[in-house]
Amino acid sequence: MNTRLPLAWSSGALANPSFRWFYLGRTVSLFGSAMTPVALAFAVLAARHGQELLGYLLAAELLPNVLLVLLGGSLADRFRRDRLLVWAHVGQGCSQAAVAAVVLTGTNPYGLFPLAVLNGVLAAVTSPALRGIVPELVTPAHISQANALLNASKSAARIVGPATAGLLVATIGGGFGIAADAVTFFAAAACMAQVAIPSRPAGPVRSLVRSIKDGWQYFRRRRWIWSITGAWTVMNLIQMGAWQVLGPMIAQKSFGPAGWGLTLSVKAAGILAGSMVLLKIRFARPLRDGMAAAAGVGLPLVVLGCHLPLPVLTAAAGLAGIGSAITGVTWDTALQQGVPQDKLGQVLAFDEFGSYVGIPLGEILAVPLADRWGIYPVVTVGGVLFILVALSPLALRDVRRMTAQDIRSTMPG
Fold first, then answer.
1. What is the CATH number of the domain that holds 228?
2. At residue 93, does pLDDT exceed 90?
3. Are 322 and 270 in contact (CB under 8 A)?
4. Residue 206 resides in a domain
5. What sections of the protein cross the membrane (predicted)?
6. 259: burial class by Cβ within 10 Å (0-12, 13-18, 19+)?
């Protein structure tokens, strides 16, 4: 590790006014969005057949997100990302305002389904542009710092947002939390409107299908990209099944909901701490170090499955949070520095598609596997497999040996 980076409004990533506006808009939006899952969940659960309805709503939002993210990548490469983000945030604000209206007026909750689908579509359009715009706002030397700042905001929002939403649900109702999210989307759109990126040189006009094909060809020819994306396909499958589904079930029969909430809070605090550390340091070999840190995310699963005490679990969760921050920042930085702008959106879309496509399978298989072999053995084995899969890309020399300079040198031209 080397190179200390300054953090001040007059230097580093924040010296660029466009990045400052982007960062402000993204932070505001993240804090609003962090409130919605809690507020919406309690509002839906209060309705008739609420448990089934909530699951279907989550699926209705996730499915178009996964299916259309490749289209979102093509749009991010074809159009100016700053303008795309403005209109996407306006659309998300309108959608969340409609959700809030349904909840606050007590309208038939089935009216939330088309809005959930719309939210999934807008998220698919927005995500590649959000990740792809960073290299257009800061110099290559400050991309890592910019990603660390964004990751810190995300983790802080995950700490504060749910607690704020819970307070709103308990006092004035969850619909107001969703309405607040809508306001933050409009505020973020206003911030994004202040972002100005240089116009990219006009290239050949390609159809969306051709753009996806070109992005796939670029993606599959870079072993350092597809190997890590492939690893995350399996890792997210394990994580969502063993941690998100089976974790609360173990907590319910052992240390209780309060202990589980504490564990999640410590993990979020670890992500925040790791992001703050990354404002100051860089890693000599980001791919190797990032995937080694990702292996630490599997530690809480092993601890949970082995019946170890709650203090051990919370400590492991804190370390996992730090590892999550390191792997997230190093990976985004590597892609943003190593992929040309005209293909970055599409490559990021393939990365997101690969990372998330296995999640529904993990959620579906978790309980049947636990019924067959026992919940504790399944979680323990899941943790061990997570660690092994995280380390598997290191078998490739490209991943193990590449420095940040090597990554930048892979960019054509």
1. 1.20.1250.20
2. yes
3. yes
4. no
5. 21-47, 53-72, 155-176, 182-203, 224-246, 258-279, 291-310, 375-396
6. middle
Confidence of residue 410 (pLDDT cuts 50, 70, 90): low
The range of the structural domain enclosing residue 189 comes to 1-200
pLDDT tens track for 191-249: 999 998 876 555 555 667 778 888 888 898 889 999 999 999 999 999 988 888 888 88
Q: Is residue 205 in some structural domain?
A: no
Query: Is residue 341 located within the same domain as residue 302?
Result: yes
Q: Let me know if residue 207 belongs to a domain.
A: no
pTM over 0.85: no
Helix (H) or strand (E) holding 155: helix 143-171
Averaged pLDDT score across all residues of the chain: 84
Q: Is the Cα torsion angle 328, 333, 338, 342 positive or negative in sign?
A: positive
d(Cα 277, Cα 16) in Å, to the nearest integer? 21
Number of Cβ within 10 Å of residue 409's Cβ equals: 11
Structural element, H or E, at residue 28 = helix 17-45
> Measuring CA to CA, which residue among 401, 411, 389 is closest to residue 227?
389
Cα-based torsion angle of the residue sequence 120, 126, 132, 137 in order, rounded to the nearest 10 degrees: -150
Q: 274 vs 36, 153, 221, 326, 402, CA distance in Å?
A: 25, 12, 32, 6, 22
Contact 178, 45 (CB under 8 A): no
Query: Angle, nearest 10°, between helix axes 310-338 and 143-171?
Result: 130
Q: Where are the alpha helices (DSSP H) in 221-298?
A: 223-238, 246-253, 256-277, 286-295
Interacting residues of 248 by C-beta distance below 8 A, sequence separation 6+:
257, 260
Split into its structural domains, the chain has a count of 2
Per-residue pLDDT at 84 exceeds 50:
yes
